[in-house]
Amino acid sequence: MSKLIYKIAPDSLWRDAEAAGVFSGAPIDLADGFIHFSTAEQVRETAAKHFAGQDNLLLIAVDAEKLDDALKWEVSRGGALFPHLYAPLDPASAVWVRPLPLGEDGKHEFPELPA
User: Fold this and answer.
1) What range defines the domain where residue 75 resides?
2) What is the C-alpha separation between 109 and 115, in angstroms, rounded?
3) What whole-number distance in Å separates Cα of residue 29 and Cα of residue 24?
4) DSSP E strands: which ranges in 1-115?
C-alpha cells in the first residue's frame, strides 16, 4: 500500500501549477529550498500552525513512494521526521486534491485521512 503525504496550498497557487504543469512550491518552500509536506498525523497541526484562519486552501495527497530520491525525511517540528521534496512536483502526480474549508469554529475541516 502506498503512503500518502500531504501538501496544503492556496487554491490559486495550485490551479496555476496545474495550468503550468509544475508546482515549485509556495513562497515558504521556495525560501527553504524544498517543498514542505506532512504526514496524516502531522497535517492538522501544520494547518493550525501555518495556515490558521486562511480560507481557499486545498489539501493535496501525493504518493510518497513515487517521489523517489528527491523526497527526504528530515527532523523538524518537535523532532519529528517530516517529508521534504527537493524537486518540483508534477501536479498530475497528485493522488487527489480536496478543498480544505474553514469550519464555523475557525479550524480547517479535514477529510478522513488514511494513517
Assistant:
1) 4-99
2) 17
3) 8
4) 4-10, 35-36, 57-63, 71-75, 81-85, 94-99
